[in-house]
Write a structure and sequence with these properties.
By secondary structure, the chain is α/β, with parallel strands linked by helices. Helix content is 31%, strand content 25%. The chain is built from six helices and twelve strands.
């Protein structure tokens, strides 16, 4: 699977549990968290570091993802709506995401409800290009109906349908690891 840069896609990691997976990412936080998991084969995309996304983007990243064929890609976006689809403020980040989307048999857009209606510089993709849009419980019912009226849009508030954790203990353990990693990443001094 591909896991994109971003805080929302990072949250997906708590649902992986003890699954044996190959994870391909351009996200430094994702790589830092899953790199020590013996059940995960980590493949890290090349590219230029972006402070905005805390990951690697640019022509090398795009070329890398264009060479792959994966089962699933989990992507984030800075904005989305029914008409314009998913969008990004940074051109290099948007082109990397588009390459990820094109390399996957199934693709999932993970976005929090607060991003609905935000419009940015680069159009990433129509929502109908995604297998499913995953958002949170705060997504307004009228907007849900608007999205579901579009062809091929399935809107869910649970990633559990896609990746079920093996146990509650694993989720708790991964939540602790996420908190520890966030603490390290937010500190201006290495620990």
């Amino acid at each position: 699977i591909i896991i994109d840069c971003g805080t929302t896609t990072f949250e997906l990691l708590k649902y992986i549990g003890a699954k044996r997976l190959t994870i391909i990412t351009n996200s430094i936080p994702v790589a830092a968290l899953v790199g020590a998991n013996p059940n995960i084969k980590l493949i890290y995309a090349p590219g230029e570091y972006s402070e905005d996304s805390h990951g690697l983007i640019g022509p090398l990243t795009v070329d890398f993802f264009h060479t792959l064929r994966v089962d699933k890609a989990f992507l984030g976006a800075h904005g989305f709506d029914a008409i314009g689809g998913a969008n990004e403020p940074v051109l290099g980040d948007g082109t990397a995401k588009r390459a990820m989307l094109e390399s996957a048999a199934e693709s999932y857009l993970l976005v929090d409800s607060g991003k609905y209606g935000n419009v940015h510089f680069m159009a990433l993709s129509k929502l109908s290009d995604f297998s499913c849009v995953i958002t949170d419980d705060d997504f307004p019912a009228d907007k849900r109906e608007e999205l579901e009226a579009l062809d091929k849009i399935k809107l869910t508030q649970s990633v559990m349908e896609l990746l079920r954790p093996a146990s509650l203990d694993e989720i708790v353990g991964q939540q602790r690891a996420v908190k520890a990693l966030r603490s390290k990443l937010s500190s201006p001094y290495p620990q």
